[in-house]
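Appendix B. Worked example

We walk through a single record from start to finish. Start with the input: the chain for Penicillin-binding protein, Oceanihabitans sediminis, length 747.
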Amino acid sequence: MKRYILLAAKIAIGLFLLLVLFILAVRWNVFGKIYTEEELIHYKNETASVVLSENEVVLGKYFDKNRTNANFEEFPKHLINALVATEDARFFEHDGVDTRSLLRVLFKSILSGDKRSGGGSTISQQLAKNMFGRSNHGFLSLPVNKTKEIIQAKRIESIFSKENILTLYFNTVAFGENVYGIESAALRYFNKKVSDLNIEESAVLVGILKANTYYNPNKNPDNALMRRNVVLNQMHRYEYINKKTADSLKQLPLKLNYNNLTTKNKAGHFLTYVKKEAIKIIDSINKVDKTSYDIEKDGLVISTTLNEELQTYATEAFASHLSDMQEKIRAQYQRNKYQKRILNTLVETQLKQMKIHPDSAKVKRKQSIFSWKESKTDSISTLDSLSLENTILHAGLLALSPKTGAVKAYVGGIDNQRYAYDQIFSQRQLASTFKPILYATAFESGKHPCYYLDNDSIQLKEYKNWSPKNADNTFGGKYSMQGALLNSKNIPTINLYLETDFEKLDTIWSRLKFSSRLKNVPSLALGTTNASIYEVANAYSVFANSGKATTPYTIVKIETSSGEVLYEHKHKSGKEALSKQSTAFINEILQNAISRGTGQRLRSQYGVTLPLAGKTGTSQDYTDAWFVGYNPNIVVVSRVGCDSPKIHFNSGLGAGSSLAMPLVAKTLKKAESNTKLRKELNAHFSPLTEFERLQLDCEDFKEKTGVEKFFELFKKQETSYKKEQEKAKRKAERKKKGFFKRLFGKD
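Next comes the structure step. The output line below is what the pipeline stores for this chain.
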């Protein structure tokens, strides 16, 4: 018997020594690093950088891990109570390890096999796991990791207060969907700051911690509701709330305000653009100051110029207007056989480019389909999918302050996740939005608004007998420059182009910061050159800003999480690109275009009352529709069109006033109902001087007098006689030349 007792004692001592040796091995970093107290003090979370609107609404984040740190003072008392009651009831009593819980787990879970007894880890131990993760050591993984967490928890408790531990815990814990930290979780599931959470919302978030997929309130609401009620029961059990409160809260339905800024964001394209700009700034700071800031890890705060309310109104305008127009263009391509053939030909060409056999293209498979109501997955062939994609109307809208260049609204497309290409920088035909630039050049060259231009039908033989027409197919009489521009007449504009020095036009084009090169051809007058929404907004801001050019910008300030300012935008006075008088003429004419010209539907149909000047634009065959609306405080530009210029409306539905203007009109109409925004945008143009008023005092249109017609006929006869003389002269010269000289250009 003594021999067995001695053997058991030896085994026990051996196991004890082995356990001590094991613990020492873990402590001595044999199984991986355990962080020292000094290293723990300097521990730093990888934290997402936050992007704020001008009124400090969170627009989005840039992150490797979606985490935003919060301070202890921001945590509601009931949130802390919910966590302690559910995860570690004796948190305020132990020093990192709850011996009672450990023994319970040891005897119930391991020895008796009761899985309901819990994990036994304290908040401090869980924090150690959140901070440093777990490593794989084969069959020793569990004892090694648990031992490391106990040692690490003891060290955490020795240097941090309980408040600091709770702060670190709430900022490191995972809530599923790549969301880390309570602040990010509150924003994701309830679209609010952690400080604004109520008791039942706090219970939902604490409930997620047990299993962040199974208890995800967005994906598994029933499970989340059940777990929330368990947390409320725990809060009652440990006397943080009374039974009446617990019972009433458990009767409440699960209410989420789910806000995934990663997958669905009304400022998605803007955030992509800002990230590029911010990285340039941060790289420059790192280079100059020898720092190593990382936009995805260092929790920077990026304050932007975007007005979140105006952005919301713009995105709502997109959904409201384009959903209606989308149905109309699809219907056109369904019923019109000629148009349907064009679409089918385009799809066949695309299939060849993609090297997809026509038979394979007819096979149906599950695909994501864009819809303004909701994107869905359905069984559809590649053939049908391409037909749908080609008839999608893409659009962009940019609003900026002409005085400063601050971007106020930025909608780069119809869906930033599905269509990442940013329409703000897409180069498309300018159409009639080019005309004010030509007219401004003419004013700069000395012409005045009451200078009259012929509206007779013309044919330009040097350009393949091109005969431009007005949109309404009328001709005859004369238009003042004022009347021609506000009514967007093509023939007088061509005549003006022929009278304007091209080099002067090219110089002003460059001053207005356009990137494309101009070609000296008469069709240029009608906007056959390309430009982007960004460039048009920047150019029209010169008109709105009395001739001075500014540079658009989006980032106001970049700060560290502690409030240190790394960068701040400094406003620079704009250089003069046009004279104040020329822009005064343009502004007055384009205000008249809104009140009685091509843009009058802005008032009559949409009821916008803000002081505005504006210009519509419709490119050839309705390929692209443009609209610009502006005053001294805001410039808004929109453009709409399909990806391929072959696909477009075949009627006035594709005109600038029908397709592009409503995006601006609906945005500004809602802005008018916002008292603060209305006050900000309600800016009148500077009053005209007496001289400027006199220069604009004339009729838009007048018939030619008999005298004018007589001299015009005489002029035509004289021109015809001169042409005949020149023709005869060239014929005589040709006869003088020998046969070989005429044939080869030499004797």
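Two observations about the output. DSSP finds 28 helices and 21 strands in the chain. The chain has three domains: 65-250, 266-432+510-686, 713-744.
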